[in-house]
């Protein structure tokens, strides 16, 4: 079978043929044509969050974590104090990288099957005035739980604290409006809900804080202020750009707009999620989260409580049928995850459900019907 396997993962994810074909051309990084693509992508990214008035967007080479690191390094002063609202693995990663870059980091920990609480945040900010910035993971991809961005942003604004949002797995699918939600930095990447390929991130920076960010980064490559100043001046990236990734993202954004933008993407992913959860629940598999907390991005399922279950065998059998699943990321309970995002719809999700049914029968976990 030479059809690409369907990636039921949170990125890299399944892309359209149009997006793949956009990569079949070489581009000079200093050339006017490529400079125009960069400018156009930046404009259209700002469109998605209604951010033209309040924010700039700075692209950065690398995977998503590179941009999270860059955002923290650029926005937080070296003597700043960051509070991470922690309800999962990506929150823990954000706390770790903050600390590794020499900033003081504290975490307030919540249960992994609950969203973080703006009320608890408020209590912490009252108690500890040394906190300068808050880090929020919008959709905690470790479980799939959606965190309350607007309410957290409102608390940060009221207390005059900076807010850094990791919207890696939600951007483009869940509504984010810079006109009504105040954030200092918001981070996402090419290979997630915009359905580009992986290889670059981008960070929305609030214009009001931009000048103050000069010289804060302890890293040359991760300095988003410098990247922004250079890009504004020359139209070019400071260092070798991921040319093919950017043109693929440009093509992916064109399709995003054609589809109907964020509301249409959310509707398709919500339908994927419904088909998946309905189908796997009927096979006896139980989602980890309560339905009202579940973002339609990635679903964590409890592993079947059956002695024949083994993730590696489960994965291999699903792969043989053309679907790539994702391991769980929880330490306490055995789980696996299935992504709802990417250039796939109800047909592919239903095929995935059928494949999982066959796999569970093959492994002897459910009876052959
Ligand atoms: C919430 C979140 N943060 C950060 C990342 C960045 O990860 P990576 O550096 O592997 O792209 C991801 C990737 O899935 C994510 O979901």
Which secondary structure elements does this structure contain, and how are they paired or packed?
Blueprint: E1 6-7, H1 17-21, H2 32-48, E2 55-61, H3 64-75, E3 81-86, H4 89-100, E4 104-109, H5 118-127, E5 133-137, E6 139-140, E7 145-146, H6 149-159, E8 162-166, E9 185-189, E10 200-206, H7 207-210, H8 224-234, H9 243-259, H10 261-282, E11 298-302, H11 311-320, E12 323-324, E13 326-327, E14 335-339, H12 346-362
Parallel strand pairs: 1-12, 3-4, 3-5, 5-8, 8-9
Antiparallel strand pairs: 2-10, 6-7, 9-10, 11-14, 13-14
Helix pairs in contact: 2-9, 5-6, 9-10, 10-12
Residues 10-11, 63-65, 68, 90, 137, 141, 166, 168-169, 189 line the site of pyridoxal-5'-phosphate (PLP).
Explain this structure to me?
With 369 residues, the chain is α/β, with parallel strands linked by helices. Helix content is 40%, strand content 17%. It contains twelve helices and 14 strands. It has helices at 17-21, 32-48, 64-75, 89-100, 118-127, 149-159, 207-210, 224-234, 243-259, 261-282, 311-320, 346-362; strands spanning 6-7, 55-61, 81-86, 104-109, 133-137, 139-140, 145-146, 162-166, 185-189, 200-206, 298-302, 323-324, 326-327, 335-339. Strands 2-10-9-8-5-3-4 form a seven-stranded mixed β-sheet, with helices on both faces. Strands 11-14-13 form a three-stranded antiparallel β-sheet, covered by helices on one side. Helix 2 crosses helix 9, helix 5 runs parallel beside helix 6 (149-159) and helix 9 (243-259) packs across helix 10. The two termini are 27 Å apart. The model has no long low-confidence stretch (mean pLDDT 97). The protein binds pyridoxal-5'-phosphate (PLP). Pyridoxal-5'-phosphate binds at residues 10-11, 63-65, 68, 90, 137, 141, 166, 168-169, 189.
